[in-house]
Amino acid sequence: MQVKTHGNNLVQLTRLIAFNCFLVREDDGLTLVDTNMGGSADGILKAARDLGAPIRRIVLTHAHVDHVGSLDALHALLPDAEVMISARDARFLTGDRSLDADEDQMPLRGGYQDCTTQPTRLLQAGDRVGSLEVIASPGHTPGHVAYFDHRDGTLIAGDAYSTQAGIVTGGSLRLLFPFHALATWNKPLAVHSGEVLRALQPTRLAVGHGRTLENPGAAMDRAIAEAKRHLGNSYASQKAY
Ligand SMILES: [Zn+2]
Fold first, then answer.
1. What is the pLDDT of residues 132-172, one digit of tens each?
2. How far is the CA of 139 from the centre of ligand 1 (A)?
3. What is the per-residue burial (b if ≥16 Cβ within 10 Å, else e) of 34-73?
4. Does the pTM exceed 0.85?
């Protein structure tokens, strides 16, 4: 597990070059954002020990396997930690892969994994988890959320953006790292969410795959423009969200 600190409150944990999760410092300990792929629990706990603070909360950006893979193992080791995920993506953890009638009926993409851990709290847009605000950013998955740290403008965007092999949003394809594009459910909706996140004017962009960017505004603008270009009419004709 590679460990890298960004600013005062964000610690990036990376496995196999491309797979990130994050520890966020709070006054009472740490919030873990995503759990990485399976087999990451020991490395995450070691990183927290090295920071000298307990993990109080586990929050998830979405239910893909490389973000929830170590959830059950961590929950077993940290039974008192809160576990939070969007109400929408929580259904995937139980094995329910159905779409709602009012969702675009596109096939789900990416790997989902059943988890035995029961969330202690289901999140809605606008909820607060410590210093983090829950930002709805559907598209990569139906219930994807990002977390915005109001203390310093850090945005933990999950897979709403990727910076591995260059910044993208909305599932634009990068041949050197195609997994982000291949795992995105609803590309027009994901581009819309990319714009919503850009409008927060984050000072720092942390993502599920790739490096963390400082002052990411211009890069996010480029990613949005590229995604809109690729999607063309399918973006222009999307229903109003
Ligand atoms: Zn994903």
1. 999 999 999 999 999 999 999 999 999 999 999 899 998 77
2. 10
3. bbbbeebbebbbebbeebeeebbbbbbbbbbebbbbbbbb
4. yes
The CATH number that applies at residue 72 is 3.60.15.10
Give pLDDT tens digits for 72-128: 999 999 999 999 999 999 999 999 999 999 999 999 999 999 999 999 999 999 999
Distance 86 CA to ligand 1 centre (A): 14
Distance 115 CA to ligand 1 centre (A): 16
Q: What is the DSSP letter of 179?
A: H
Q: Which domain holds residue 22?
A: 2-236
213 alpha carbon – ligand 1 mean position (Å): 19
Q: How many CB atoms lie within 10 A of CB 183?
A: 21
